């Protein structure tokens, strides 16, 4: 991680779960981390707890449904920190509804957060790198095992957005190779991670059933896997990583 000390990482969906664990791990590794979410107060609290660490955490409020919010985040980063060297598109959204039960507005919201915002953050990150002559940066998209197969658990529209993330990540990798760029692109697909995600989507009873059925991953398990990915030598590109609890069967 030494080559990343003092450099800038952007983490979306940073208020809890995997995003918060990522912010903590990267800050403790010496990076200048920008954590964004609608629930910015939680990131501010984490930032206070991390004072005195090797790196730093800048909390910024951002609604990923709004293009203007995303562009404002990148403008702020450019002004205060120079630009983005690692972008981790971690934010994800589902409402627990089936395709037949979802409104157009609800489907737009999931698509905006899970797909469009991910693409825009990736675009603006790579633009930031190119403006500064950075050719060793990294874009990491947090996918899901649901992006590899439509499973009985999870809503099917959400699965569709995660299939899209898988295709977009590989497409972006190919575009980087066509451009003779050394910017690396990675998809990380966790299985069951014990976070607030299922509680928000499915309610307390169903979420507890998920999380108590097996020994789930924790946010720091995924964060540790990502530290391994970005610590790889520059000539090594880990394109796809699936990480499941040992007891998970699907």
Describe the model.
It is a single chain. A seven-stranded parallel β-sheet has the order 3-2-1-4-5-6-7, sandwiched between helices. The protein contains eight helices and seven strands, in the order βαβαβαβαβαβαααβ. The chain has helices at 17-28, 40-49, 67-81, 104-132, 156-178, 197-202, 204-213, 219-231; strands spanning 8-12, 32-37, 56-61, 86-89, 138-142, 184-190, 240-243. It has a single domain (2-243), classed as Rossmann fold. By secondary structure, it is an alpha/beta fold. Belongs to the short-chain dehydrogenases/reductases (SDR) family. GO terms for molecular function: oxidoreductase activity, acting on the CH-OH group of donors, NAD or NADP as acceptor. Keywords: Oxidoreductase.
